[in-house]
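Journal club side-thread
Mid-discussion, someone asked how the predicted structure for our own chain would compare to the paper's figures. Pasting it here so we can look after the session.
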Amino acid sequence: MLLRSWISSPIFFVYYMLSTLLFGAIGPFAIVLLPERYRQPLLNVHNRGLLCMFCWLCGVKVEIIGREHIPKNRPVVLVANHQSEWETYMLQILIAPVTTVLKKELLSIPFFGWGLRMVNPIAIDRSKRTNALKQIMSQGKERLENGTSVLIFPEGTRTKPTEEKEFNKGAAMLATSAKAPILPLVHNAGYAWPSKSFLKHSGTIRLVIGPMIESEGKKTSELHNEVEQWMRAEMASLPKKA
């Protein structure tokens, strides 16, 4: 297992870098030349390639439970735990079109940030919390009204699978304000694709998609608690390894 990680991880890293460089270079031209509805499908070629190579090279399988809960032709506030880079690629494929709330510094990374701009993310300055929340509310509502789902990681940053971090209420605030449903999901990808680790590990990633939670008629705190309770319970039941 460890030997495979040391052999496959460098090969995957080379593919990761080459694909990121290619699609990052394409990004600025795509933004200028392509209508917005074509940009995510283009970027998802990159995302699918990364995920396929990750699974093939590193010996990873993906088990998805609850796919039937994904609504058709209805934008949602997508709420997920954040353990690795894996979910940032997977969720763009699973539920499209989708835009992600992320820290604005990511857009400044050469090639990576250029490609990321294709999906028009909501890039916030986390050091200015009040302005960041206003931005999520205004831009999030705009995306939802235009038929694009909004992905929010309530932990705010990547967290190790064994750690528990406080959930912020941004997703519930956006959902109640926009009268949009929340689609919660959890996974254990951090065991196979650990954050800030060069090594990738073989095993099975389990992704559990919950029933859609309606926001209409609910207070922000009530909706937040309902989402968090479901996510905490499901996270506790996930396998403690990939």
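Post-session note: The beta strands are 60-65, 77-80, 98-103, 122-124, 149-152, 182-187, 203-209.
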